[in-house]
């Protein structure tokens, strides 16, 4: 069981993001979320056997003080990942930074190997032409204030695909031996002559691995597809259907999304028009058996 | 796994000397790979072949074991159909091609593809 701390000021969007990624909320529903009192624990199971224990820490000042004093050990021990969420619109950056740094101190003494992710959140509220500038400024400041620790930063919003990019990268950092999975995916991609193959976690639709032979040039394609297919999957389940697979054909490419194992979906992109759909589908069926075995072995321990 | 382009090349090599189309189908009748003058031709031949194959194999099975080969002489050509691994191979030839040579060609191709296509179900 991997412990993940989700921290940041009250109202910064922690519960919203975890509800969208792990509990099938849509962005609109998060307006109805109540404030989190103290710590809410939730258990998620990804890829069958990767168990996450998410600690969503209510960020009101009284709790914050408690975390650093009376609950210090309890909260900051055995942390694998710390995710700190900053509301980009926050009026009191100094105070945010103060809590953030107290948090880092506690992490350094109690879980010195924890990976740290900082999300500059609610970027949708910033005017579009200001986003790069503001984000870059915040990142610089965070990096300096985090020293000697290294942090990974993302700009996020629940209203677009950036949330999926950040969380894909967080989950990726938690998967044991992910390189093995990637090398098998490379092989799959080569044999069936695909442009690209992408592996998604089945419940969250986060991207966990990919293999690219021909790059289509859009660097945001993974998170866009995560976002779109997750929404589509949710609307299927609202009509009592369950999403299984789809094939999209276009003048320049064909895309196949299908389940691969009990815990993953795969997307295969083919741009060669002479390769028949049935051939690709057959190869996906063959890969299915292989990846089921691989997954079983990977999480056996 | 099936290497689609490689299979197409092999089928292309057989599509000479009066053979108009060489088609590999799955048992549901979907095209896996082909060599033909047009996609449209391949689709039509494929649909007809798989339909005929499935009807014949239903009738034959009960008496003499599974269907393994089928030759059809049509008004505008000749057709040889055979089973390769779990797939159907179909050769369509002009009417002036003799049945014997068409059968020989079909058998040679079947022999050539049998081993690799049986491994397709592996990774
Ligand atoms: N505009 C905008 N609002 C957000 C975003 N994320 C969360 N919110 C809103 O912020 C409010 C507080 O969110 P909540 O998840 O309860 O914050 P928490 O206290 O950190 O758990 C809710 O009304 C959300 O709808 C975002 O990316 N953009
Ligand atoms: Mg909350």
TrEMBL record, chain A:
Hydrolase as UniProt keyword: yes
Entry annotated with the keyword Oxidoreductase: no
GO annotation, biological process: cellular response to starvation; negative regulation of autophagy; positive regulation of TORC1 signaling
Gene Ontology terms: cellular component: cytoplasm; endomembrane system; Gtr1-Gtr2 GTPase complex; nucleus
GO-annotated molecular function: GTP binding; GTPase activity
Cell compartment(s), UniProt: Cytoplasm; Endomembrane system; Lysosome
Regions crossing the membrane: none
Keywords annotated in UniProt: Cytoplasm, GTP-binding, Hydrolase, Isopeptide bond, Lysosome, Membrane, Nucleotide-binding, Ubl conjugation
Record Pfam families: Gtr1_RagA
Gene3D superfamilies, per the entry: 3.30.450.190, P-loop containing nucleotide triphosphate hydrolases (3.40.50.300)
PANTHER family: RAS-RELATED GTP BINDING RAG/GTR YEAST, RAS-RELATED GTP-BINDING PROTEIN
Function, in words: GTPase involved in activation of the TORC1 signaling pathway, which promotes growth and represses autophagy in nutrient-rich conditions.
Family per similarity comment: Belongs to the GTR/RAG GTP-binding protein family.
Record's subunit section: Component of the GSE complex.
Protein name, per record: GTP-binding protein
Taxonomy of the source species: Eukaryota, Fungi, Fungi incertae sedis, Mucoromycota, Mortierellomycotina
UniProtKB/TrEMBL annotation, chain B:
Pfam family membership, one: Robl_LC7
Cross-referenced InterPro entries: LAMTOR2-like, Roadblock/LAMTOR2_dom
Single GO MF descriptor: molecular adaptor activity
Domain Roadblock/LAMTOR2: start-end pairs: 7-93
Gene Ontology cellular-component terms listed: cytoplasm
Biological process terms in GO annotation: positive regulation of TOR signaling
Record Gene3D superfamilies: Dynein light chain 2a, cytoplasmic
Family label: Belongs to the GAMAD family.
Protein name as catalogued: Ragulator complex protein lamtor2
Organism annotation: Actinomortierella ambigua
Gene that specifies this protein: LAMTOR2
């Amino acid at each position: 069981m991997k412990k993940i701390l989700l921290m940041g000021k009250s109202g910064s969007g922690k519960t919203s993001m975890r509800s969208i990624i792990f509990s099938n909320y849509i962005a609109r529903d998060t307006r109805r979320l109540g404030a989190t009192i103290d710590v809410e624990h939730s258990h998620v199971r990804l890829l069958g056997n990767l168990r996450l224990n998410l600690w969503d820490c209510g960020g009101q000042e009284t709790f914050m003080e408690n975390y650093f004093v009376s609950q210090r050990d309890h909260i900051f021990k055995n942390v694998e990942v710390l995710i700190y969420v900053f509301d980009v619109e926050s009026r009191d950056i100094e105070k945010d930074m103060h809590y953030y740094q107290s948090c880092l101190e506690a992490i350094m003494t109690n879980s010195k190997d924890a990976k740290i992710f900082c999300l500059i959140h609610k970027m949708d509220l910033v005017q579009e032409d200001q986003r790069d500038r503001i984000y870059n400024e915040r990142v610089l400041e965070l990096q300096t204030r985090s020293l000697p620790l290294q942090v990974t930063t993302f700009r996020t919003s629940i209203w677009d695909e950036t949330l999926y990019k950040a969380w894909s990268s967080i989950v990726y950092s938690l998967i044991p031996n992910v390189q093995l999975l990637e090398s098998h995916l490379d092989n799959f991609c080569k044999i069936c002559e695909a442009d690209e193959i992408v592996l998604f976690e089945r419940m969250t639709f986060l991207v966990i691995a990919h293999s690219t032979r021909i790059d289509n040039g859009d660097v945001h394609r993974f998170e866009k597809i995560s976002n779109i297919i997750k929404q589509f999957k949710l609307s299927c389940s609202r009509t009592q259907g369950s999403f299984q697979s789809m094939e999209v054909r276009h003048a320049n490419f064909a895309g196949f999304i299908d389940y691969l194992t009990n815990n993953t979906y795969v997307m295969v992109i083919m741009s060669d028009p002479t390769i028949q759909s049935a051939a690709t589908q057959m190869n996906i069926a063959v890969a299915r058996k292989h990846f089921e075995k691989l997954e079983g072995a990977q999480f056996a321990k | 796994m099936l290497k689609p382009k490689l299979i197409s090349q092999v089928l292309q090599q057989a599509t000479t000397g009066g053979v108009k189309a060489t088609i590999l189908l799955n048992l549901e009748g979907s095209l896996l790979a082909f060599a033909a003058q047009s996609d449209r031709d391949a689709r039509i031949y494929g649909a007809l072949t798989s339909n005929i194959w499935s009807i014949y194999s239903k009738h034959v099975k009960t008496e003499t074991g599974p269907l393994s080969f089928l030759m059809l002489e049509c008004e505008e050509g000749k057709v040889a159909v055979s089973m390769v691994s779990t797939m159907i191979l179909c050769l369509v030839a002009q009417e002036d091609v003799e049945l014997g040579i068409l059968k020989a060609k079909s058998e040679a191709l079947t022999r050539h593809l049998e081993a690799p296509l049986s491994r397709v179900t592996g990774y």
